[in-house]
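User: Quick sanity check before I run a bigger batch. Here is a single chain. Can you write out its predicted 3D structure?
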Amino acid sequence: FLQMSMILPSLQGLILHLEGEANDYYLCLSGCTAVVMSFRPLLGLYVDKTDDLRGAYAFTLFFGITINVAYAMLPQYGTPLLVVLVRSLSGIGAGSEGLMFLYLNKVAYPKQRPEWITKFAATRSIGYFCGPMLAAFLMHLLHFVLGPVPHGCLYGPYALPGWFLALGNLILAALLTVFWQEPPRVPKPRPPPEHGTHDEEPKLPEHMTVVTFIFHPATVAVMFGTFSGCFMGLGMEQLVPPTTKSLFGWDADYPELNGYVFSAIGVVLFCAQGLVLSVNRSTEISDGVLYLTGVGCMGLGMGAVAAAWSLIPAGTYVEVFGDDFLMFLWLVAPLLVVCCFMPLCMNCCTALFMRLANHALEGKVGTAQAVQMNITSCAPLLAPLYELWMYPEESQAAKQAPIHCLIGMSALGLAVFCVGAAAQPLWGTNKHGVHHEHNPDNHHDHQFAINERAHGG
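Assistant: Done. Predicted structure follows.
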């Protein structure tokens, strides 16, 4: 997420600098997602067959180093076609995101997974809101040290994110080599407590194949949830650069302005992760109910954003506000409301999917997890194409807000809420109350879990 958030604010400016078209920006986003979707199942299948998580991580990191160096050289030696190609191939390195959940599945008990998924997702939010700030800081530092720098040189503002990310991947590869610990085999779920909360097993057969599990109605409803949450969240974020350029006239040569928008969204996402973590720890609400709450509120929020943006006629935003800060607030405020519910939707939906997969597939969830993440990845693949259709260059030139885009996203979220509500009885429950006899937050019980894994128990 750091790599995406550092490059995304300046990507459109790089394409225009190389005399590309505005549509190339959407092709970069869709191409990257298409490569991720093609490569991720191969990683999942490899891990299921070999249990070699370390080798899979190492490959994606070293590929990331190569592709980021190539991106850093594009401002001087690239073409619009090369930008699309390099950003598409970066999806191979992005496939490592799925490995994170596979590692978590091997080291955490079912009761612990929702909490740890939220913690892992919080680190992604940190990367998301730190990326634009780092990019802006590097640009200002470059200007302070060297003065005005041409955008087309190898150390210019468009090249800096590539060099920084290549160095970051190199450091991560070194840390992986020194500190990696192999995860133990998948532990058996603990027996239910004699008192306290009473969980219900999912109404899915055991010993299912991956194909039958994926096409089971209970699973389909969950995968629609991760797709819709990602489609609404990322689709909304990807609208920021063309919207600010169209409505406010923000110059693409100064990507730090859009970077501030992304940073604000990232901060809210991080804070929302903390709220979800508190809910997981302190309540007895099942992950399915929490997921439905999140996706329903996102759908309603998208409709509210569309209503807010429709209050001002097309072409009058600059005249109405007259100040960049006021325009920034008007754009960001409704988006942040939607972002508050995105972690609740995505994290609880992922935890629900892992619970169903472990029940039906006996822990061999690598391939199923890759399929589920590919369904989710259809969202960033289709969102740019959807926005290109619903918010074409003609609408941008007329300084119209992307209201129709938001109405469609709102309808999707509410429809998925209805489908999930119908499938909820098949999911069972996984309550996170504090009355469990084996509380993962208890130090003695946590140490017991570590010792049990270390001895293969």
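The mean pLDDT is 77.

User: Great, the batch can go ahead then.
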